[in-house]
Model the fold of this input.
Amino acid sequence: MRTTIPLVITFVVGLIMLGEAFIPHWMYRIVTENILEWGVILAAAAFVLGLINLIQVNLPKVLAREPEWGYKLVMLVALVATLVVGFMGGGDRLSNGQAYKWVFDFVFVPLNATMFALLAFYIASAAFRAFRARNMEATVLLVAAVVVMIGRVPIGEQISERLPQIVNWLMEVPNTAARRAIFIGAALGAVATGLRIILGIERSHLGGD
Done:
């Protein structure tokens, strides 16, 4: 029953939400909107469970002084502090002058920018490895990347007046075609995954093996 009931609920709800694209009746839309609202509530409950799991996993490691426990302690202290100032601020917590607003603007935003700045070095390293002309595909990628990078800077116009036009063509035609192909493939994959979940073929969301 632990497996059957969730599968039946998933199948029924999946069919109802799938029918939203084919049944334009206003009463049917009311039903689907209510289901979406329940989904938001369940997502909020999942955040609470994630918070509890985060504490259960990291707090014992801090108490046991396991390797890198200091980082986990900082995370837990920041978590509790953010929750406290958020609850204290209430509905006005995002207003200027509130502690929660200050934490978001002067702690979270700089840390987020720092993380992306560090990721830039990994992106540069990955680009260096990807742009090695080992075969025809990598050579085409390397040549296109060099042309785009040179054409996007002022020196590109000094080299050739047509270079920016070539860059625009590369970005608007081959790049757009490749992106659309990727998006179509991702959409087909999402449809296939959704059908596998609705039909009960994919059961990883139920836990276990």
About this structure: The two ends are 17 Å apart (CA to CA). The helical segments are 4-19, 26-63, 69-89, 99-130, 136-151, 154-159, 163-172, 174-198. The chain has three domains: 1-66, 69-126, 131-199.
